[in-house]
Design brief:
CATH topology: TIM Barrel
Helix content: 25-40%
Strand order of the largest sheet: 1-2-5-6-7-8-11-12
CATH architecture: Alpha-Beta Barrel
Largest sheet: 8 strands, parallel, barrel
Strand content: 15-25%
Radius of gyration: 17 Å
Structural class: alpha/beta
Number of strands: 12
């Protein structure tokens, strides 16, 4: 499976053989998306990747639920520990979720009792890890019942979150740790996938699924990647 991660997952919701991840949604709307994109999004020639400081700008979880479709995944982010109870109250139990505990541009929380989100009615109940998430935290999430991990979010820099090939060694470490220790887990590998070679490398390490986001900054490159390696593979 190929996942389209935010922000592009909010818009590329129509591609066959892909699953869009929408959000990340907070309880209250966080305005200023366009301003943050204009002011902070830029390409780093030093790191050969994109840097942003968008900081979870989104229209709020009520909007996300309203326009949710069963072939999508809603990404959630907790800005307060008590956000968890509200999310549990308003989100239907069969809604596919990705819990973003790793945004580098907002002070997201990692509640201890997230296990209540895990149930047999959801096809996807994913935790999106940071490149710097400790093995101890992964162990704790596993103990809570999570069996799907997205490795991983952008790398935290002073200027914002960095995407691109800089993430590859961090993704590699996470895949190796999870797949070697927990045979019943699914890993979504994302970070630095700009071509089939990186995807194939992650697959050899044990990744079950893959995600792209910054690849979509180049529509032609993404289109060729999608058509040649996703669409034709499943068609």
């Amino acid at each position: 499976m190929l996942f389209i991660s935010p922000p592009f997952g909010n818009y590329l919701t129509f591609l066959p053989y892909t699953t869009p991840i929408k959000g990340s949604y907070t309880i209250e709307p966080r305005i200023g998306l366009l301003k943050q994109i204009v002011n902070t999004l830029h390409y780093s020639t030093l790191y050969k990747g994109w840097i942003n400081k968008i900081g979870l700008r989104n229209p709020g979880i009520d909007y996300g639920i309203k326009y949710y479709r069963p072939n999508q995944v809603l990404s959630l982010a907790f800005l307060n520990f008590n956000d968890l109870q509200y999310f549990k109250t308003v989100i239907p139990k069969n809604t596919n979720l990705e819990i973003n505990v790793s945004c580098p541009n907002a002070n997201v929380k990692l509640p201890n009792n997230m296990k209540d989100f895990v149930n047999n009615e959801r096809k996807w109940c994913i935790v999106k890890l940071s490149p710097l998430t400790s093995n101890k935290t992964i162990d704790n999430l596993y103990t809570q019942g999570f069996r799907q991990f997205h490795c991983c979010n952008t790398y935290p820099l002073a200027l914002g979150g960095l995407s691109g090939p800089y993430l590859i060694p961090f993704v590699e470490q996470k895949i190796r740790y999870i797949k070697n220790k927990y045979k019943d887990c699914e890993v979504i590998a994302g970070g630095g996938i700009q071509n089939i070679e990186t995807l194939t490398y992650y697959k050899r390490l044990g990744a079950d699924h893959f995600s792209v986001s910054s690849l979509c900054f180049n529509p032609m490159k993404f289109g060729l990647f999608y058509f040649n390696y996703i669409y034709l593979s499943y068609k």
